[in-house]
Amino acid sequence: MGYKLAGFDVIGCNEIDPKMMEVYRANHNPKYHYLEGIQTFKDREDLPEELFNLDILDGSPPCSSFSMAGTREKDWGKKKKFREGQAKQVLDTLFFDFLELAGKLQPKVVIAENVKGILQGKARKYLKEIGIAFDRAGYFMDWWLLDASKMGVPQKRERVFFIGIRKDLAGPFCGGLFGNLPKLDLRFNGIDIPFGEIEDIGGDGCCKMYPSTLEYLRLTDPGDSLCSAFERKNGKRSFFGSYKTHPGKILLTIKAHTDSGNYHHNEERSLTKKELCKAGSFPLDYKFLGINPQYLVGMSVPPIMTAQIASRIYDQWLSKI
Q: How confident is the model at residue 115 (pLDDT cuts 50, 70, 90)?
C-alpha cells in the first residue's frame, strides 16, 4: 500500500499465512501471488521474467526472534509457529532466505525491515551476518533506524530498515571509507500527531476487555502504563505494553497481541477499528476479512512510512539510473 502511495506498481507477493494472503488479495489484487514459505519460493524455477526486472524487492521477515518483548535468544535456531495456521519454521534464518531470493532476482534495490531489537544485545551478531548476506547477493547495504511518528504516522513506531543497492549501479550513490555505503537521506522531522486528532469518540473497541484489565485501567492516569498501576498495588510487574491513551500525546506502538496495547483515556475500551486504521495509516475501508484490526495493524509497517522511504529512494536513486 505504501509503494502504491509513492507511485510504484506492486506486481506480486509471497506469503505463508493463508488468511493474510486472502486479505492481501482482497485489498490489492496482485498479478502474482505465491502462498508458500520463502524457503521453497526462493528455489522455484518457474518465476516469470517480470520478477527479474524489479526496481525494488521489499521483505519483512518475521521479527519475533529479535523483539525485546519476546524470548529472543532462547528461541534462536528452533522451529516454531509464527501464528496459528502456519507451518513451523526457524524464524531467525528467514532474513537470509529473503536475501538468497534477492541474489536470484537481482532487483535494483533491496529493502528488509525488522524490529529495533535486532540492534540490541546478542542480536547484534546478526548485523554482521546480514551485511555478509547482502554482499553475497550483490548489494552494498546500510541500515537506518526510523520512527514512524516523525514521518506523518500518528503512532510512535521504531523500525530498522536494511537498504541495499545493486553493486553495478551503486557508483554514484555510495560513499564511506571504502566507498561501499549507500548514501540516502532518510532524515524525517515531522511533528507528532496526538491521539486526540484521530479519536473515535463513542466507538466500540476491537479487543475484549478482561475484568483484570479494566481494574487496572481505572487505576491508571492518561498517558501512563497499566504496568505501573499493577506494580503499585501488587509490588510486582505485569501488563507490559499496555497503556492508557492521552488526547494530547501520540499513541505508543500498536501491538499485534490483542490482549495488550493502548486503551482509551475516558471510555472503558480498547481502540476502535477507525482509530487503529488512522494510527496505522490504513484506509478506513480496508478489508480485514474477520482478522482483528489490531493484529494486522500491529504486524504492519505503516503504509505512509513505507511511502516516505520509497519516495526518497526513487528521488535520490532510481530516477537517476
A: confident
DSSP secondary structure letters along 73-130: GGGTT-EE-SSTTSPPEEGGGHHHHHHHHHHHH--SEEEEEEEGGGGSGGGGHHHHHH
Catalytic residue positions, numbered: 63
- Do residues 243 and 260 make contact, with C-beta atoms less than 8 angstroms apart? no
pLDDT digits (tens, 9 = 90+) for 229-253: 999 999 999 998 899 999 999 999 9
pTM: 0.91
Cβ proximity of 115 and 159 under 8 Å? yes
Q: What is the CATH architecture assignment of 195-298?
A: Alpha-Beta Complex (3.90)
Residue in the structure block whose three cell numbers are 483515556? 265
The full set of domain ranges for the chain reads: 2-189+303-320, 195-298
Instruction: Give the bridge partners for 278, in sequence order.
Output: none
User: Angle at Cα 68 formed by Cα 38 and Cα 159, nearest 5°?
Assistant: 60
